[in-house]
TrEMBL record:
GO terms for molecular function: hexosyltransferase activity. Signal peptide: none annotated. It holds the Pfam family MGDG_synth. The lineage of its organism: Bacteria, Bacillati, Bacillota, Clostridia, Lachnospirales. GO terms for cellular component: membrane. InterPro entries: Diacylglyc_glucosyltr_N (IPR009695), Glycosyltransf_28_UgtP (IPR050519). It comes from Roseburia inulinivorans. This is Glycosyl transferase. Belongs to the glycosyltransferase 28 family. Keywords: Glycosyltransferase, Transferase. Residues 14-179 form the Diacylglycerol glucosyltransferase N-terminal domain.
Length: 372
């Protein structure tokens, strides 16, 4: 089976989901190509789309929240949005690419390629099955105007929301958000710390801010370090934000209990090594933490879908959160110090996590191709 996975570089979460499916499919002997759809129009277009999104999220997140709310108000299954027409422009190029490379099926963890695929199906330009994967714990605006064969969604409790928005229930498959196999395997805390050269017998926090380094990370890190008076260590993963990394390295240069990490491919190992994770409520990082079964404190969300993620996790006791930095620090310290609190959250996580999502998606793709 030859699979095309389409994503785009608006944050790392969608790409991580795509790579998880790619890894699972390749482990079963399938051929997989994963690409940024906008590269079909050249690197300049790809960089423009990614740059616009990341720029808004990092520098004016309240505006992103406003756009999201407007999208929720105007999106409808009865009419097409400007988002659809913008992505439809790539329809013919994508159809040509698929035909030239003889793919059997296409999958996308991102709305934009789903819009393009919808246009292609309408114009009879696509003749293979197409599957979408939702990467947030909500039905984001404009999913309902797309028309793919199936939609893999994060949880069965979201089915009513998707149906209410206009996605047919028979197309919804609540397999979960796919994560790489690293996150489905647990290494002992001692072994992980040994590999990472971290101290053994101390409580340890992991602080993450996503691939874009979103959030008031420097302020939060200073508050957490100030409150850690019992020998706790802090590992801070800064993402791709080199400026924040430089600031933190300078600020904590003489503090040997604070470990500053830039972008890393070893997040799973750091999760194994630490006792509690602080992370913004991105769909992928939250799911990776959930599957890892590590206590979660959610920090400030990017307004929009991350707010929905935070509410979903909080309502099911999968994480705790607060708007206030000092309270976030208190919540993390309580989880480290209180075995009962930590076990209650761990039990809820074990009940709700879906570590087999990637493999289930591959099985779905196999069935769809075999029925063609």
């Amino acid at each position: 089976m030859k699979i095309l996975i389409l994503s785009c570089d608006t944050g790392e979460g969608h790409n991580s989901a795509g790579r998880a499916v790619k890894e699972a499919a390749e482990s079963k002997g399938h051929t997989v190509e994963m690409m940024d759809m906008f590269l079909l129009s050249g690197k300049r277009t790809s960089h423009a789309v990614a740059g616009a999104y990341v720029g808004i999220v990092k520098h004016i997140p309240f505006f992103f929240g406003f756009i999201y709310k407007v999208g929720m108000l105007i999106s409808s299954s009865r009419r097409k949005s400007p988002v659809y027409f913008a992505n439809a422009l790539l329809g013919k190029k994508l159809a040509s690419y698929i035909d030239r490379h003889d793919f059997d099926i296409v999958l996308t963890p991102h709305l934009y390629p789903a819009e393009t695929i919808t246009y292609m199906k309408k114009k009879n330009l696509l003749h293979i099955p197409a599957v979408a994967v939702g990467t947030d714990y909500t039905c984001i605006p404009f999913w309902e105007e797309t028309n793919l064969d199936y939609y893999v969604i994060p949880h069965e409790d979201l089915i009513p929301e998707y149906v209410k928005r206009g996605v047919p229930e028979e197309k919804l498959l609540p397999y979960g958000i796919p994560v790489r196999q690293d996150f489905c395997r647990n290494l002992s805390k001692e072994a992980a710390r040994k590999k990472l050269h971290l101290p053994m017998d101390v409580p340890m926090f992991l602080v993450m801010s996503g691939s874009m380094g979103f959030g008031k990370l420097a302020v939060f890190a200073a508050e957490l370090a100030l409150r850690c008076r019992n020998g706790e260590h802090i590992v801070i993963i800064c993402g791709n934000n080199a400026k924040i990394e430089r600031i933190l390295r300078k600020e904590f240069h003489f503090n040997k209990r604070v470990h500053i990490i830039g972008y890393t491919n070893h997040v799973s190992l750091f999760m194994d090594a630490c006792d509690v994770i602080y992370t913004k409520p991105g769909g992928l990082t939250s799911t990776e933490s959930l599957v890892k079964n590590i206590p979660i404190v959610h920090t400030a969300p990017i307004p929009g879908c991350e707010t929905a993620n935070l509410h979903f996790f909080g309502a099911r006791h999968l994480s705790v959160s607060s708007k206030h930095l000092a309270k976030q620090v208190q919540l993390g310290k309580a989880l480290i110090e209180n075995d009962s609190l930590r076990e209650q959250m761990s039990e809820a996580q074990r009940r709700e996590r879906k570590p087999e999502a990637a493999m289930q998606i591959v099985s779905l793709l196999e069935r769809l191709v075999s029925h063609e």
